[in-house]
Amino acid sequence: MKTKVFLACIFFVFNISAFAQTHQLKGLVKENNEAAAFYDIQLIANDTIFSSTNENGLFEIEASEKNYNLQIIYFNDIVYEHTINLTSNLDLGIINVQSSTNLNELVIETSKKLTERKADRFIYYVENSTATAGGTALDALKTTPGVTVTQENIGISGKNSVLVLIDDKPTYMDQQELTNYLESLSASNLSKIEVITTPPAKYQAEGNSGIINIVTKQIKQNSWNSTLGATYQRSRRNTQQYNAAFNLQKNKVTLQSSLNLGERRSFINWNNDIYYNDAFWQNENASDAKNKYISGKIALDYQLNKNWKVGTKASIYNSNFADTQPQVTTIFDRENGSVNKFLRNNATSTDKTFQQIYTLYSEYKLDTLGRKLSIDFDFVNYNSPKTNDFTYAGFTPTNELIPNSTYTGINDIDIKIQNISGKADLELPTKFADFSTGFRFSQSISKNNILALSKNQDGVFVNNENLSNYFKYIEKNQAVYFSANKKLSEKWTFQAGLRLEATQTEGYSLQNDNRHKNDYLKLFPTLYIMHNFTDESSLGFNYSRRISRPSYESLNPFRTINNEFSYNEGNPFLRPSFSHNFELTYTYKKLDSRIYVSSMKDGVNQASMLNAETKQNNYIWMNYVDATNIGITESYTAKITNWWTSVNTFNFDYSVSNIAISDQTYKGTSVSFFTTNDFTLNANKTLFFSLSYFQNFGETYQNFELKPYAKFYSTVKYLMLDKKLELSVSGSDIFNGREYSKQEMYGVTQKFKNVWDAQRVRFSLVYRFGNKNIQTNERQSGNSDELQRI
């Protein structure tokens, strides 16, 4: 029955595009025997079709069979008018016009928009901003209202996570790779940045997150550019990164390529204290990690004709990760404070990652009215073999080894994930409303194999059959959507969408000979209503329903040992969580306000399963959280002087969480403030200074409580060699703000103190050369949900 419903929806999507037959009208407009470039064309009947001539004076219009009044307009003057009966393709040939407008006497004064609130998104027009002059795409994000940018994260206030798109396509880069890429991209290449807190039906319903869509300018023909960059970073360890890019547009061919490589190092401390009734456990952990990586991509577009563009793209990512994790646990007696025992665990791990993404895509313009069909096919291959070696043992208060307490093991783990997906999107603007529809399919196959070896009394490693396992997981997803945007009047806009997703999953565990299947069909509606009081003031309401599917790691039933009192374990029986999201937005000039309510059911998280009697503290993935969040976000952009711009964001959140496994309800608030200030220090706009400050005033979420902390960020940037060479020095978390938190579970309190190695200084050098006016459109594949879950 579910399959029949879904196939009926697919049939509806394909047939909705069956509109009346259209014909082509074209002509060549000249004035004084020269091409009349960029003249307005209007084809008037019951409705009006708008177009314009190109730089050569040519125009082409697709329209249905009808009698029309053709008008050619130049600066509000009708320079040509003619009645046309369009019954077949019609070429009007050369049309000679004579305008009365003298450009030498014409003075045009316009006030360009900097921001705009639409029904489903907030838009920041980078090309109209003076604050980003001489800056990078990352600088442009810093000045975008409602967006928070640090060296560790790019986020949207009030959202737990964010998906960054470039030209409406996901980037599939980790945080560091994305930061490096945005720093290599000039802000002058950007048209606008869209902040989407409630994604419409066109986007996948996966994840209760926001979207940042970075839109680049239109491609310039017959041009090229290249970028070379190097970064050195000093924290508790050294990091080096190098990147290069080359882009070319020649006639019908567009080539885009990039290469990134480096070695990232980090040293992290995290301490965990557990307060039992009769004992106090002090856990001290560290991670000394090194990751050597190389990634690259190449994309090739070919313009088959004026309406049809095809392309292909390939990207790779290879890394070699090594980590050493010493751990010491000191067990105290709660009554007299004496040491009862020590636990020591020495672990090392190596992890190699190989990822390839291949994409084929096509874009076809159906007519000049804006109707367009886009098709994408994608393939992802991911392989990550890893080895974990560990030894743990118990020691007396005098540091003597406790007999028979030593355990040595090796876990050889191999993870292979393949995903294939395809999608089609159809945009159908009409006089009545703007429609969009499409479908998507995806299949993911995850194969996980663990060989657990334990050292026996003879010092020989043997297979531990209780821990060795093989797990295969298959997930199929089909989706179809329909969306309509209607401008009811000059002040009212209405948009609604509906996305239908069908999912079939199957998991098989060899150790338990257990097979688990799931099959569900869900609807995800979206609704937007907006009222414009003036050009600078609007009020809007948004609603959406979202789904969050478990990550592939969490579904894996493998059990990995931490020490004799702790292990990690996945759960193949996890269910997806669902959320309802409501937003009320208000924009007035430079102030943007957002009130939101979000309700989540069956939230997935890694639960700390504490047993106060046995002292076991095991971490198991479970559906155990129902949460409701109510909050408000305020963003204000101030142009204090012509050389000082300040973007300020305040967020307040109140949450109520029901924890099923402990049958408790937790209530609390989260309050934070973020400000970023950009200064232009000279008249030539070659010297810049940026200062950012983030303050968390404390946070209670679910059964966690986070104490207040603050972080400072600063950057100095200097442009040389006609602004082609950029040198920057930046400091991150300058005063080393530390995070302290605690958790309550089963009447036992845990306290955490983490030092994330975020205090660092970074030196960057970027050189851009070639035709600096080139703009290349970044196109990415359609596996965003699947890759986010790897």
UniProtKB/TrEMBL annotation:
Annotated keywords: Cell outer membrane, Membrane, Receptor, Signal
A Pfam short name: OMP_b-brl_3
Signal peptide residues on this chain, from the entry's feature table: 1-20
Outer membrane protein beta-barrel domain boundaries: 365-767
Record's subcellular location: Cell outer membrane
GO cellular component: cell outer membrane
SUPFAM superfamilies, per database record: Porins (SSF56935)
Classification via InterPro entries: Beta-barrel_TonB_sf, OMP_b-brl_3, Plug_dom_sf
Primary residence: membrane
Name of the protein in question: TonB-dependent receptor
Organism taxonomic ancestry: Bacteria, Pseudomonadati, Bacteroidota, Flavobacteriia, Flavobacteriales
